[in-house]
Amino acid sequence: MDYDAQLDRAIQRLHDEGRYRTFIDIERRNGQFPKATWTKADGSEEDITVWCGNDYLGMGQHPAVLAAMHEALDATGAGSGGTRNISGTTVYHKRLEAELADLHRKEAALVFTSAYIANDATLSTLPKLFPGLIIYSDNLNHASMIEGIRRNGGAKRIFRHNDLAHLRGMLEADDPAAPKLIAFESIYSMDGDISPMEAICDLAQEFNALTYLDEVHAVGMYGARGAGIAEKLGLMGRIDIINATLAKAYGVMGGYIAASAKMCDAIRSYAPGFIFTTSLPPAVAAGAVASVRFLKTGAGRALRDKQQEHARVLKARLKALGLPIIDHGTHIVPVHVGDPVHCKKISDMLLEHYGIYVQPINFPTVPRGTERLRFTPSPVHAMADIDHLVRAMDKLWAHCALNRAELTA
Question: Is the pLDDT of residue 409 over 50?
């Protein structure tokens, strides 16, 4: 085989389909987010506004987070020095796990290097702990959940997105004595819709199934102390395992699960993705502790409220222009384009002509024909930033001759 030619063909297919992904070089500026500097291919620089970041609340630049990281870095150095089992468990990791357990009102928590690894490692390990386990998974679950379920070698059932009748039918069809687990998300990040969490918990109780909830896009963002949608709905006590991230609303890096002490102990002891991975640097763990603590407070609630306000304003203004917004009442603002070439073209023109950075979301992240631009307004975006974005989208939508709904304003 001509390996280089095969690689050329694989990459060319992406170009032909209009979904080849281009990474741009940006440098975030501390104290100025969402502003950043874009270094172009010719070496020149341009100031841009980031509209697709996952640092939803700007906590990646918060003084309390930075101070904690500086203090830990000066005290301990750069890395953790090993896996959690071999010298990589520090006081900073233990503090973080205690803070997360408290956040979700669970007995324990277990920190991983990312939420992807936490999902993959946990879901692939559970059948070792519960032989014969059947996992029921929403068909729009994140790739990390899908991969963990695929690798575990156990039985799986895929139910239609948020379809309770379909899920019930699958539960009824299986052996009542078999161990079961329902895996789902709170907020599905591509559309911003919310799962019917209470009804899923009711089904889990009826069929004696464990519940596994991915709160990645909700932690820090919802609930009185930022524990997510389960906290907002008063359902944390009915969720057996919560997975979430420290890399979005908390502005740092890492992922975790929160569950019973026995569950966390078992995952810690059996999951290769935990056992054989170097632990987070202490400075990162310290910054995460500071961020989680801050967002539990009234000041954290104020940030969440301001973010929600900015999301509502952006949605209303884009809707008034007739742009096809997907609005499920959450902080995520997807604008449906429906074509990979137009999606990338608008993204490129926003960056080049308006200094607005938003990545196109194409297949396989979303199904073909549902390509979109996904905006994530934050409390540190100014109203002037929103105004600039709306005007740019209006002009580019007209330039590309894309359809609009009937204008509402």
Answer: no
Tokens 């009915």 correspond to what residue?
238
For 147-180, the DSSP string reads HHHHHT-SEEEEEPTT-HHHHHHHHHHS-TTS-E
CA-to-CA dists, residue 251 to 17, 58, 102, angstroms: 34, 7, 19
pLDDT recorded at residue 111: 98
In the DSSP assignment, the letter for residue 403 is -
Q: Terminal CA-to-CA distance of the chain, rounded, Å?
A: 60
Q: Which of 106, 156, 180, 248 is catalytic?
A: 248
Beta strands 255-259 and 241-245, pairing class: antiparallel
pLDDT tens digits, residue range 299-353? 999 999 999 999 999 999 999 999 999 999 999 999 999 988 899 999 999 999 9
What is the pLDDT at residue 407?
38
My answer on whether omega of the bond before 34 falls inside 30° of 0, hence cis, is: yes
- Mean pLDDT score across all residues of the chain: 95
d(CA 214, CA 228): 10
Residue-wise pLDDT for 24-58, tens only, equals 899 998 889 999 999 998 999 999 999 999 999 99
Place of tokens 């440098």: 27
Q: How far apart are CA 380 and CA 392, in angstroms?
A: 20
Residue 138 C-beta-side C-alpha neighbours within 13 Å = 23
Distance CA 235, CA 198 (A): 7
* Helix H or strand E segment including 363: none
Catalytic site residue 248?
yes
Count CA atoms closer than 13 A to 193's CA, side-chain side.
10
Cα angle 190, 32, 344; round to 5: 35
Q: Is the dihedral of CA 119, 122, 125, 129 positive or negative?
A: negative
Q: What is the pTM of this model?
A: 0.94
State the Cα–Cα distance between residues 197 and 211, nearest whole angstrom: 10
